[in-house]
């Protein structure tokens, strides 16, 4: 009798194990997280920036600030520039001036 009881218990454990494995597999496949806010943000971003593959590469422009312009020329002039100076160009100009004056390491 002990032998038959052991077999029925082992058979019962196998059925329970199968049920646990099935429910674990069901949970694993049904709990995929989808970040809807991130998807919406990516779609909005694509609309804002447009299709980057269609944009042409800009040709490098001549600098707005002349190579002969001095720091004093900029400070003493009250007139606005004819066009906006790109930030990168202004930073390069200031770094060059500061290096010449020994103020930038």
UniProtKB/TrEMBL annotation:
User: What is the protein name for this chain?
Assistant: Uncharacterized protein
User: This protein's superkingdom?
Assistant: Eukaryota
Organism of origin: Rhododendron molle
């Amino acid at each position: 009798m002990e032998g038959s009881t052991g077999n029925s218990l082992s058979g019962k454990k196998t059925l329970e194990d199968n049920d646990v494995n099935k429910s674990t597999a069901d949970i694993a496949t049904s709990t995929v997280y989808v970040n809807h806010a991130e998807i919406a943000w990516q779609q909005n971003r694509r609309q804002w920036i447009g299709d980057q593959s269609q944009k042409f590469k800009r040709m490098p422009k001549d600098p707005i600030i002349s190579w002969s312009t001095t720091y004093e020329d900029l400070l003493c002039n009250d007139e606005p520039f004819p066009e906006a100076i790109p930030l990168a160009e202004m930073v390069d100009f200031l770094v060059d001036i500061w290096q010449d004056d020994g103020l930038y390491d």
